[in-house]
Every structure is written in C-alpha cells, then in structure tokens.
C-alpha cells in the first residue's frame, strides 16, 4: 500500500471506527472522529511503514475494492496476529470477497510462522461475526453494558 492508498484507507477507516464507537455507546459523537484518528495514530505511528503492520489493498480487476490491515505481535510469546481491519466497499459486499480475503490473510499469517489470529468485532456487526465464525474463529470474551438509569 502506498501513501496515497494509506490516506484513503485512513479517511474511511477512522470514520467507520468513530461511528462504531458511537453506536456502541463508548464515545460521544462530538469527539469520536478525533478519538478515532488518535487511536489510529497510536497504532500506526509510521503510517503505512509502521513495523510489523501489514496494510494491503484488496484489488479486483485492477480496482481497489477495500483494505486489509493486520499486525504481528512479536513482543509476547507465543506470537500472534491481530486483524485490525477488513474493509470491503459497500458495493462489493455480499459477494464472498470478505471470506476470500480473510482466508488468504490467515494463510499468509500462517506462512509467516504465526498460529493465532485475533480480532475484535462490534456487537452490532452480526454479519461480520457470522463470517468470522464460519471461518472458525471462536468467541473468547464478551463485553456487556447497561445504563444505570434503567434502575432508577
């Protein structure tokens, strides 16, 4: 991924992440985009050249139809990969590209000598959760939330 592609990825991914954090109640809409940009900056301080991070264009017939981002954590034993982002443009969703890209990504990670692949999925994203479970991902944790105002 070159810098131009990386900037386009950031434009889309930071907005999507901010929207998801607002939707799940973690962030306020007024500050969400700023928080999202800060989160991406902390994870990718050297942009597309950040060590142990793999940012890729998803290409179909020479056209970018999405992006993929994962990192390899070499600081902990055993090493593991963390899949931060798989983003398929809306007009290309529902055609099997997500599943195909995920399978290729996991194979590539395995070829790098890493066994475990972790990811996070927002609770409201049932389509993604279904895809991940079809691929064999197992749920390892749940985060739950309730408003205390329900108990007034």
Structure description:
The protein is of the alpha+beta class. It is built from 4 helices and 4 strands. It has helices at 3-23, 29-43, 97-111, 126-135; strands at 53-60, 63-73, 80-88, 116-119. A 4-stranded mixed sheet has the order 1-2-3-4, sandwiched between helices. Strand 1 and strand 2 (63-73) form a beta hairpin. Helix 1 packs across helix 2 (29-43). The model has no long low-confidence stretch (mean pLDDT 94).
Keywords:
single chain; 152 residues; alpha+beta; 4 helices; 21% strand; globular
Strand order of the largest sheet: 1-2-3-4
* Number of alpha- plus pi-helical segments: 4
- List low-pLDDT spans: none
Task: Name the structural class.
Answer: alpha+beta
Fraction of residues in H or I helices: 40-55%
How many strand segments?
4
Topology summary:
Blueprint: H1 3-23, H2 29-43, E1 53-60, E2 63-73, E3 80-88, H3 97-111, E4 116-119, H4 126-135
Parallel strand pairs: 3-4
Antiparallel strand pairs: 1-2, 2-3
